[in-house]
Amino acid sequence: MACERCDQQRFRTQRGVLQHLPYFNGPGQPLPVPPPPRPPDPPQEPVVQHQFMWGYLNGDKATHELKQCYEKIVYWRKNIFMLPKGSTGKDYIKETTRLINEWLADSRIKECAMYAVHIMPALLLQKQAKNSKNKHYVDALNRRLKLLQNVEFDQLFREANALQKRLPKVDRKKNINVISQNFVSTYQKET
Would you list the domain boundaries of the chain? Predict the structure, then answer.
């Protein structure tokens, strides 16, 4: 196809002609020259984020310790008490909320905060004994929250690990016949 205004231009489709027309200034007039490419911006120095501190630990050390705790507690058995009502429970929720808000705000402690949120229940809410009273839970949570705020991750982990080791061993090996009998008896009760 040829342009109506310019017989020298050849196009394969009507679309090509329509794209050419706005750039044509008339017979004998050359097409406008596009502006020269903009030179690249000079290289900027990388923005260095200042290392954050969590208590007396620098950010890398705090993140490393929290990662180590997290990698170990994911294999622990569930041994968590219910969050107590009152000021102690509210303090726990405030600390969790503060850490989640740090993560949402894309602050420098983002990664560190999320690890802390994930390990808080396992480290702070461990039952001390099977038949402990609520007062014992409140006292333990108060003490553990102070340790968390003072960045004593290793002490919290040692205490929680000792409580995990005191849990009775569970024999998880079950015969397929026992499993199927339990399933059948449960199914028969429902019907």
Answer: 1-27, 55-165
